[in-house]
């Protein structure tokens, strides 16, 4: 059985794009692997969040995960800052991570451009902390999106370098978890390619039916096709893409035909689309509303998760201390 580790930044509520992109697959992944899901609250410090908001953000992600079906009976769910062994490994890995390679990481360059007033060392060493997250459990596989592939590549490099330097075969080189199918990318409702929090075009799992209706109603459309069987502009194709994952094949076919015969009424399509999105999100939303007020449950989940994660982490860090040459007198 493979060990799989998945990390998510604690930046707020999860949306439809997160759900269809990864979350839905995570639920299946739990049955076939030993899974660790953690919330990267230490990583989030690189952008200096308000302490008053940090905890709320962690809670939101945790609640959304649990509500969507990440199961603490099957998987280890924990908060990164509850496992300080990670930070110790991060420090050792940093001794073998070089300025030059860290400075030329794409994510670092992008952040440095976006926040020139706060190019801190934590930002520079973001990839070593991520490597520590993965290597602390000696994970075999990590589900990553395109934007994280370089970090995973660096993790392999750090693992290899550690092994070579100390003459051991201790760390495995983790590979990307392959879901066996193209991940569905959910577009935004504003004609943009991707649904995202920072893009401001997201439908959240926690949105009420009213909010969903409002958001879908606002989606960009036009006066409709004038030629039969014409190619859809991106913003219309986007609505069909969402429909493809939330609606039945019949419904989809109905609107495809209406499009092709130039009889499409966007008002009807949007009404149907909103209804079908609500069908997917409502059961999750109901669980969110229940779980978020259940502090006892959340405390239990995070406490047990931390205990299990630390058990695995402590084993690794004890070995690593010995490998680097620390000895007791
Ligand atoms: N960097 C990841 C992101 O931005 C989050 C993350 C932190 C992570 N540590 C990880 C992902 C370890 C996978 C494994 O999405």
- State the end-to-end CA separation: 38 Å
Q: Summarize the biggest pleated sheet.
A: 3 strands, parallel
Helix-and-strand structural type = mainly alpha
How many strands?
5
Spatial strand arrangement across the major sheet: 1-2-3
Report the bound ligands by name, code or SMILES.
Answer: tryptophan
In percent, how helical is the residue content? 55-70%
Q: How many H/I helices?
A: 14
Question: What gross morphology would you assign?
Answer: elongated
Question: H/E element string?
Answer: EHEHHEHHHHHEHEHHHHH
Ranges where pLDDT stays below 50 over 5 or more residues in a row are: none
Portion in beta strands: 5-15%
Compute the gyration radius: what is it?
22 Å
Overall pLDDT score: 95
Short description:
With 329 residues, this protein is mainly alpha-helical.
Task: Explain how this protein is built.
By secondary structure, the chain is mainly α. The chain is built from 14 helices and 5 strands. Helix 4 crosses helix 8 and helix 11 packs across helix 13. It is elongated. Bound molecules: tryptophan. The site of tryptophan (TRP) has 14 residues, from strand 1 and helix 8.
